[in-house]
Every structure is written in structure tokens, then in C-alpha cells.
Specification:
Elements: H1 2-56, H2 60-64, E1 67-75, H3 84-95, E2 98-111, E3 115-128, E4 137-150, E5 153-163, E6 167-168
Parallel strand pairs: 1-5
Antiparallel strand pairs: 2-3, 3-4, 4-5, 4-6
Length: 170
């Protein structure tokens, strides 16, 4: 009978210790998730600054590395882009008619482990050159981006942009 009582007490003690470890473990997991979310947001904000700078410098392939090989980009009023190579080609074509500058602001960010969703607003300034069929203008748009974590870092998988009507500049 004493053995049964001791066994029961030891079992209860071990179970209680296990629950205490589980709570610490859950707290550690929450702390780790918060840290990973913060690191992901920082990497994405860095990419949001780097991509436009690379495009301004004509480094389209280097900027393209921030896009998944099978990226899908949909911008209102334009045909969809269905690959990194198509995205690079579109950037080269756009550069032929003028200079583009893009400023992005993250409004909401949701970290999902190996995926992240970014909602933001962007302002794109276009300065037409002499060959441009369109005038210089400033475009404002809202965007939603699905990022995925890869061996190369965070890459854009889906990019959806809704552009407000343009304001002509002189």
C-alpha cells in the first residue's frame, strides 16, 4: 500500500513539474515568435527600401532576387506579371520611358512563420523622358504583399497593388 501511495505521489509530482515546464516553454515560444516576427518585419522593411534603390540604379536582376521565381504581381490597370523574369523585363521596359521612384510604408504586418503578410501604402513618382508616351506624375496606391521565407531570405510571392487615379505634375 505504501508503494502505491509513493508511486502516486511521485507521479503527481512529475506531472506537476511537467506542467510548470510547459508554461515556461509556452512563454519561451511566445518570446521567440515575437523575436522572429520583429526580425521578419525588419528584413521586409529593409527590402522595401532596397528594391526601389536598386531599380533606380538599373540593377534589375539584383532587385529581382527579392521576388520569388514564380511571383505574381497584379497592379490595377496593368496586365499581371507571372514570374521574376517577367518582373525584371517589366522594370527594364518602364525605365526606357523615364525615372521611377517608389516610397513604401508598412501599415499592417502579420507574421505567419515562413510566410508574412504586409499591407501598406506606396507613393510612386514618375519623371517622363523625351521618349515617354505618358506625362510625369505621382501615383499613390495601397498594396498587399504575401512574403515567403526562403533559403535566399524573404521574397515576395504575391504582390497586389490598387492605384488611385494619378495626379499630373509639371
Amino acid at each position: 500500500m505504501k508503494k502505491v501511495i509513493y508511486f502516486t505521489l511521485i507521479t503527481l509530482f512529475l506531472a506537476a513539474c511537467g506542467e510548470g515546464q510547459k508554461q515556461v516553454s509556452e512563454e519561451e515560444l511566445a518570446t521567440q515568435a515575437e523575436k522572429e516576427s520583429s526580425l521578419a518585419l525588419q528584413a521586409i522593411e529593409d527590402a522595401n527600401a532596397t528594391i526601389p534603390a536598386l531599380i533606380r540604379e538599373g540593377k534589375y536582376e539584383e532587385a529581382g532576387k527579392y521576388f520569388a521565381p514564380d511571383v505574381v504581381q497584379m497592379i490595377s490597370g496593368q496586365p499581371p506579371i507571372y514570374s521574376r523574369e517577367a518582373w525584371i523585363t517589366a522594370q527594364r521596359e518602364a525605365a526606357k520611358i523615364g525615372d521611377w521612384n517608389l516610397e513604401l510604408e508598412v501599415l499592417n504586418f502579420e507574421y505567419l512563420g515562413d510566410r508574412a503578410v504586409e499591407r501598406g501604402r506606396g507613393i510612386q513618382t514618375f519623371t517622363a523622358n523625351e521618349d515617354s508616351p505618358i506625362p510625369s506624375m505621382q501615383l499613390t496606391g495601397d498594396y498587399l504583399v504575401m512574403w515567403k521565407k526562403t533559403e535566399e531570405g524573404w521574397q515576395i510571392q504575391y504582390d497586389y497593388v490598387v492605384i488611385l487615379p494619378p495626379e499630373a505634375t509639371e
